[in-house]
């Protein structure tokens, strides 16, 4: 395909900041989205197994409830964190993204309903498990499959956007225009690789979980050791499986000996050794995050190369720097996002470390952060609306 038409489809207003920054933010935020995709599918999948074991095994009774709770929160985080890479894609690869949304329009709509029903059913599963209902596993399974299917739809969009040479053939097969919006083209090995990454993630989560509970007197030593060993086994198995799948994927796309692929193989091997031998699981998780960033970078590297080779170069996107919106973005990110996330994370951490009971009003750091957050949020709302109305009316008044 000739990129001339794609270049014409670019936003005539240009991009508000250097494209490489959007590209970096895309890589970062997709890795975060993926982290919670893997955590939610991994914890949910393991909770389905735990549901079968919990009647006769007290360890699994405690664990299943906690896995379910973790998965429930992770789905909401994966949705929120999915919006960010979506926006960055739309800024630098807008012709690709909108073309695919047209070619597979019906699947875009199905995705929304699938997510809505799948996540609602997760809550049903959660409460059914709490009541020890006999149908809970069945409800959980349907919810799990629906969420895995959401991932498949997302995967279809991701691989279709990087095949511009096939768009015409999909749009008008044999010269007849097809407006059904039902294009659905899968790259099996890539999808399996991503979904199976949920296995090492749930393993690493269990290692963190057991390290975290060590200081909590409500959990006995046996349970903590049990979850630690289980986590280590799952993490090692999952990492080996993911490495094999990654090699198969790079082989299928002719990137087996690419330098970035080799760095990722080495990172996988290092993680396998660390997951087995290192005592501090938080360090292993941090290294896993680096690996996830590399994988996210690899996805973008594939896309950038394909598009660049046909003449669509994001770095030559027309530039129209808008300092005002950049300032608003950075300030929101640092003040609201930074303080907000630190506040919620430290509260959650302290609740867990205080044997399940924590009086936030007596904690100086948490109270200060809560007050700061209220002020920042209030000021942010005033600035946001005042600025918005000023921009809206400045030309017409
Ligand atoms: C349970 C629901 C979801 C699952 C399991 C899921 C899973 C995935 C997976 C596996 C990929 C990578 C596909 C590939 O590269 O082959 C992906 C990509 C992506 N997802 Fe999600 N996702 C979900 C929901 C969402 C939501 C709600 C959003 C947005 C609000 C979102 C935004 C994205 C974006 C922007 C990409 C990258 C697309 C691209 O690079 O072209 N996802 N998702």
From TrEMBL:
TM stretches of this protein: 25-52, 73-93, 105-126, 138-162, 189-209, 230-253, 259-275, 282-302, 322-349, 370-390
Protein's UniProt keywords contain Membrane: yes
Listed name of the protein: Membrane protein
KW Metal-binding (keyword) present: no
Organism: Arcobacter aquimarinus
Keywords for this protein: Membrane, Transmembrane, Transmembrane helix
Top-rank lineage group of the source organism: Bacteria
């Amino acid at each position: 395909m000739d990129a001339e038409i794609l270049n014409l489809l670019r936003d005539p207003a240009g991009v508000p900041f250097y494209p490489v920054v959007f590209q970096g933010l895309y890589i970062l935020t997709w890795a975060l989205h993926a982290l919670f995709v893997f955590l939610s599918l991994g914890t949910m999948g393991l909770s389905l197994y735990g549901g079968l074991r919990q009647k006769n095994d007290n360890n699994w009774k405690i664990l299943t409830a906690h896995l379910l709770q973790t998965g429930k929160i992770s789905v909401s985080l994966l949705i929120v964190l999915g919006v960010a890479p979506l926006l960055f894609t739309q800024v630098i690869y807008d012709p690709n993204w909108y073309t695919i949304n047209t070619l597979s329009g019906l699947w875009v709509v199905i995705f929304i309903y699938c997510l809505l029903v799948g996540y609602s059913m997760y809550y049903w599963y959660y409460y059914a498990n709490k009541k020890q209902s006999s149908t809970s596993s069945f409800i959980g399974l349907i919810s799990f499959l629906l969420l895995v299917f959401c991932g498949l739809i997302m995967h279809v969009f991701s691989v279709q956007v990087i095949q511009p040479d096939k768009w015409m053939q999909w749009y008008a097969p044999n010269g007849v225009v097809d407006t059904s919006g039902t294009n659905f083209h899968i790259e099996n090995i890539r999808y399996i690789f991503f979904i199976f990454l949920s296995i090492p993630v749930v393993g690493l989560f269990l290692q963190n979980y057991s390290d975290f509970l060590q200081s909590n007197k409500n959990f006995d030593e046996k349970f903590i050791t049990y979850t630690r060993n289980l986590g280590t086994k799952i993490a090692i198995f999952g990492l080996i499986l993911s490495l094999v799948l990654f090699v198969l994927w790079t082989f299928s796309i002719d990137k087996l000996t690419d330098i970035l692929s080799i760095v990722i193989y080495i990172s996988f091997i290092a993680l396998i050794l660390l997951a087995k031998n290192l005592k501090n699981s938080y360090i292993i998780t941090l290294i896993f995050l680096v690996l996830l960033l590399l994988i996210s970078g690899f996805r973008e590297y594939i896309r950038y190369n394909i598009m660049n080779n046909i003449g669509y170069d994001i770095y030559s996107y027309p530039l129209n720097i808008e300092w005002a919106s950049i300032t608003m973005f950075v300030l929101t990110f640092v003040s609201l996002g930074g303080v907000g996330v630190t506040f919620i994370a430290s509260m959650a951490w302290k609740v867990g470390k205080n044997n399940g009971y924590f009086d936030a009003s007596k904690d100086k750091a948490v109270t200060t952060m809560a007050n700061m957050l209220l002020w920042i949020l209030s000021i942010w709302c005033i600035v946001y609306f005042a600025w918005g109305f000023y921009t809206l009316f400045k030309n017409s008044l």
